Amino acid sequence: MQLITFSKIPEGWFEKWAEATFDTDPWGRTQTPKKLRAPNGTVQDAREYWTAGKPVYEPKDIRVPVMLVHAEAEWDADLPSYMLYEYFTKLENAPYKIMLQISEGTHTIIMKKNRIVDV
User: Fold this and answer.
1) Could you write out the DSSP letters of every residue in 42-70?
2) Distance of CA 60 to the CA centre of its chain
3) Is the model's pTM score more than 0.70?
4) 50: which residues sit within 8 A by CB, 6+ positions away?
5) Which residues lie below 8 Å from residue 105, measured CB to CB, with a gap of 6+?
6) Burial of 9 by CB count in 10 Å (0-12 exposed, 13-18 middle, 19+ buried)?
7) d(CA 36, CA 42)
8) CA-to-CA distance for 75 and 104, rounded, in angstroms?
9) Other CB atoms closer than 10 Å to residue 87's CB: what's the count?
10) Less Cβ around it within 10 Å: N or C end of the chain?
11) CA 96/CA 65 separation, integer angstroms
């Protein structure tokens, strides 16, 4: 058996993703270099909620079906698996819920292909 290892993100995919992302901001795509604004106040949310230990909302208030998809990576310090499990248990009022973990995934999972092929 020979293992062939591929790049985590195929050549050119990141650039295509970045271009499509920048194109969502009419002002940002006209800038040099291109910019992407975050009009949802992410910095303020982080300051007022995340760093203060306060939730932005209560998972128990969600009353619709829920599917959580998590790109599991042991090295992911931003969203380790234990946080997913804890959140899942707090979805007390969802009529049904499902949790899916994609192994060895990271924040760029949408751009990745399989990394190892058995030939």
Assistant:
1) HHHHIIIIITTT--SS-GGG--S-EEEEE
2) 22
3) no
4) none
5) 70, 71, 72, 73, 112
6) middle
7) 13
8) 9
9) 16
10) N
11) 5
pLDDT digits (tens, 9 = 90+) for 29-52: 999 999 988 767 778 888 888 888
Spatial distance between the Cα atoms of 22 and 28, rounded to a whole number of angstroms? 7
Do 111 and 79 meet the contact criterion of CB atoms below 8 Å apart?
no
Q: Among 57, 50, 45, 56, which residue's Cα sits nearest to residue 93?
A: 57
3-state secondary structure of 8: coil
Side chain identity at 109, as an amino acid letter? I
Chain segment 68-119, per-residue pLDDT in tens: 988 876 666 778 888 889 999 999 999 999 999 887 777 777 777 665 555 5
Look at residues 113, 107, 57 and name the one whose alpha carbon lies nearest to residue 79.
Answer: 107
Range list of H helices, the chain: 13-22, 42-45, 81-89
